[in-house]
């Protein structure tokens, strides 16, 4: 946990003090509190912090808010964790504006409904339910708990390769459906890691168990418990007619503004599918190649995905063709090799212990026939 201010909060902003002492709700949390009773009636219970009449449990105790579950604020003010009353499962509620993000509901539900839902290449956001907020412009998705794709850390080359095999497969499915994502930045590629954890963790404090009574146990590796990866957040996405073979957009969208087509002073007509390719290439460059050692052989493919000239940039079919060749070229022992975190500041004895643990795990995986490319069950 840290005490950095949320986006837009300054020392003269009321949210600044609320963020530091946690005794009051920040502005983005108030909406959820005001709708807590209605959400409970729909079957979703928010944490005590967001219930009417909440009093901080650490108030007047002399203790710090970090020791209490109701001191946890939201990481993203449009997304909140809740307990589904029908079965006690933790789910995520995402609020979005139907006016500002008109395509988000239709595209998300197209992908979350049959026949797209059952397609083996579909890696889009799973959705349990979608409902409108009465009298308001907002709708709410109910989704499973997902994590950032690179948490916990990767252990092997094969784990990295399987991750992006799924991402490329999911992106190809979107493009085959004539859907351009248009915001494929790092936080929109997620992992369903629930099977990797020995016990449920707290969504807002992943180092703690769900009841916030103890530190959570260390997760299994991706090789031991193969996860599925998902592409999320279709708020800026577009679905084009099958007859529109070469769709174009004018205004730059998305968080990644390093896209070459967006670098000019004036808006540039661009191919949104090519932008998707560039953005995924950027994710690999910034969050794999710059962070880990052991995957340098991916650099030529990433360079082709980040080609400044969109006319020369790889299309998704070319990406997958090249990627499959890379997969076939790696020997089993290369796939099981460790990827090391470049900024790891561990002592020598800790590194030796990590290597020994990896060797022990690898022998176990081989003896139990666990694949070096850990694919999840369908």
Topology:
Blueprint lengths: L13 H8 L5 H8 L1 H6 L2 E2 L33 E6 L5 E8 L6 H9 L16 E4 L5 E6 L3 E2 L8 H20 L2 E2 L8 E4 L8 E2 L2 E5 L18 E4 L6 E2 L32 H18 L2 E2 L5 H7 L10 H14 L2 H4 L4 E2 L6 H20 L11
Antiparallel strand pairs: 1-2, 2-3, 3-5, 4-5, 6-8, 7-12, 8-11, 9-10, 13-14
Protein name: Protein kinase domain-containing protein
GO molecular function: ATP binding; protein kinase activity
Organism: Cerrena zonata
CATH architecture descriptor text of the largest domain = Orthogonal Bundle
| Count, helices | 10
Average pLDDT confidence is 91
The count of β-strands is 14
Order of helices and strands, N to C? HHHEEEHEEEHEEEEEEHEHHHEH
* Main structural class: alpha+beta
Structure description:
There is one protein chain. By secondary structure, the protein is an alpha+beta fold. The chain has 2 domains: 101 residues, no CATH class; 221 residues, Transferase(Phosphotransferase), domain 1. The protein is built from 10 helices and 14 strands. Strands 1-2-3-5-4 form a 5-stranded antiparallel sheet. Strands 6-8-11 form a 3-stranded antiparallel sheet. The longest helix is centred in the middle third of the chain and has 20 residues. The radius of gyration is 22 Å and the shape is globular. The relative contact order is 0.10. The N terminus is likely disordered. Pfam families: Pkinase. It comes from Cerrena zonata. One of its GO terms (molecular function) is ATP binding. This is Protein kinase domain-containing protein.
């Amino acid at each position: 946990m840290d005490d950095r201010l949320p986006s837009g909060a300054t020392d003269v902003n009321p949210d600044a003090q609320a963020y530091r002492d946690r005794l009051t709700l920040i502005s983005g949390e108030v909406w959820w509190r005001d709708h807590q009773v209605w959400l409970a009636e729909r079957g979703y219970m928010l944490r005590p912090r967001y219930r009417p009449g909440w009093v901080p449990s650490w108030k007047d105790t002399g203790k710090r808010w970090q020791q209490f579950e109701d001191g946890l604020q939201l990481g993203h003010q449009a997304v909140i964790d809740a307990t589904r009353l029908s079965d006690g499962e933790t789910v995520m509620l995402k609020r979005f504006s139907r006016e500002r993000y008109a395509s988000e509901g239709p595209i998300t539900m197209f992908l979350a409904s049959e026949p797209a839902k059952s397609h083996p290449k579909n890696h889009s956001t799973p959705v349990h339910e979608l409902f409108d907020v009465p009298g308001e412009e907002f709708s709410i998705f109910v989704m499973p708990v997902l994590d950032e794709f690179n948490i916990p850390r990767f252990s092997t080359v094969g784990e990295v390769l399987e991750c992006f095999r799924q991402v490329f497969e999911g992106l190809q499915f979107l493009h085959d459906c004539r859907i351009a994502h248009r915001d494929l930045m790092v936080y929109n590629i997620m992992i369903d890691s629930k099977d990797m954890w020995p016990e449920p963790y707290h969504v807002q404090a992943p180092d703690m168990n769900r009841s916030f009574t103890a530190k959570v146990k260390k997760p299994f590796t991706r090789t031991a418990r193969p996860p599925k990866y998902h592409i999320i957040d279709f708020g800026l996405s577009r679905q084009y007619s099958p007859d529109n073979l070469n769709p174009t957009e004018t205004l730059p969208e998305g968080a990644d503004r390093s896209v070459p087509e967006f670098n000019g002073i004036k808006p540039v007509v661009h191919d949104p599918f090519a932008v998707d390719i560039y953005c995924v290439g950027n994710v690999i460059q910034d969050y794999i190649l710059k962070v880990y050692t052991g995957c340098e052989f991916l650099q030529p493919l990433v360079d082709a995905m980040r080609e400044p000239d969109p006319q020369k940039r790889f299309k998704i079919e070319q990406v997958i063709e090249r990627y499959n060749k890379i997969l076939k070229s790696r020997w089993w022992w290369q796939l099981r090799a460790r990827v090391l975190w470049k900024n790891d500041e561990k002592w020598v004895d800790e590194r030796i212990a990590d290597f020994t643990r990896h060797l022990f795990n690898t022998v176990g995986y081989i003896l139990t026939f666990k694949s070096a490319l850990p694919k999840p069950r369908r």
